Amino acid sequence: MILLRIFLAISFITLLLFIFVTFYNGNCTIKALSRQYDSLCVEEGNVADSLQRVEEPDPTNSSVTDSGAANTTMSPDPLGTQLTLVAPMDKHNFTALPQWKFDDIYRLDPQFKPSECMVSLRNSSNPVYKEKFIPNIQLFLQSDHVNMSEWNRLYHFNNPFGYMGFNHTAIKAAVDTIPKLASTQLLQVPTRAKDGCIRCAVVGTCGILNGSRLGKEIDSSDYVFRVNAAIIAGHEEDVGKRTSVYVHTAHSLIQSLMLHKKRGFKQIPTDKDIKYVLIPEGLRDYNFLESLMKNRKIPSGAYRGQTPRNYYSGHFNESSWNVLPCSYKCINNVRVYGFSTADYRKYPNYYYDTKHTKLVFFANHDYRLEMKTWKEFHDDKFIWMYLGKSE
């Protein structure tokens, strides 16, 4: 249960920062959400002041390419001409957060198209978000994203930001199974959206939704995102019926089905044209991904003997990877429902709890900082968050 809560938080944080999906005319698709980036070079010193500088090996000796130019872009090494793997590293050998000179180098989307929506984050007047937000960042992992040069750069970062401590052969074997996208444009703007804006609802499972009667409001969104044990039957009045995108890790998918089966979560959402987004937050996700694409049982490691495709109830179609997506990249108007707020004691842990249950805080999950951060996002109009009936 502790691990489930931790990965629920990981799913939520990643979802809010990267609320993206690929649409096409056909069956569902699953994408591996990634932080693999094109080379965007920035001046050293743009890293947050809170980072502690520690002595580390010279990055120039770690087979990492750096253009040396500020605020410029360059193409990644497409052929992987750097033939030597960077020396092994272990996160446990670091006493403080290292600062590499390539900390702020990112893979960019070469097919990026600007949004026409004037209220999107990329057009925000807030100087903090405007500086930090990179609208054309590459989100979805593809088979050509793990050449030697890119591996060596990302090996300096702990997962989910990179591959530190991972085995190159194992990761590459998994990533190589992902077909290359014909297009990376995401989220089609609805024809009724004259302003060019995409509006979505991101629905969590916290008890604040119990008795909220927000189902119709949620379903009126252009797209509805759900995570974890997204139990709908019997709770439609509070949480709605639609699911456009289901975001998960291998762990959250399997554990949610296991732990919440008695509550009615017997399969993940399988709406018509639903899209699935897999977040590779650990090695087990890459093992899951490889076996999913190869339609086999997981041969070793976590969930050994499990067949990933069984968890999608027949809604996974490998051919969907090769269908042209026709959509925009970023949702412009994000409304968040069902996540913890400062008055969490008033509500049960989950919206489907039949009696009041307590939200348990753990040392490795700073719920209070999380609540504070999302409230700041709400106040700054980065997102709109449901704060209860008294908001």
UniProtKB/TrEMBL annotation:
Listed GO CC annotations: Golgi membrane
The enzyme's E.C. designation: 2.4.3.3
Location within or outside the cell: Golgi apparatus membrane
Zinc-finger as UniProt keyword: no
Region described as Disordered: 52-77
InterPro entries for the chain: Glyco_trans_29, GT29-like_sf
Record keywords: Disulfide bond, Glycoprotein, Glycosyltransferase, Golgi apparatus, Membrane, Signal-anchor, Transferase, Transmembrane, Transmembrane helix
Protein topology in the membrane: Single-pass type II membrane protein
Pathway the protein acts in: Protein modification; protein glycosylation
TM ranges: 6-26
Pfam family, one: Glyco_transf_29
Molecular-function GO terms, alphabetical: alpha-N-acetylgalactosaminide alpha-2,6-sialyltransferase activity
Biased composition (Polar residues): 59-75
Family stated for the protein in its record: Belongs to the glycosyltransferase 29 family.
Name listed for the protein in its UniProt record: alpha-N-acetylgalactosaminide alpha-2,6-sialyltransferase
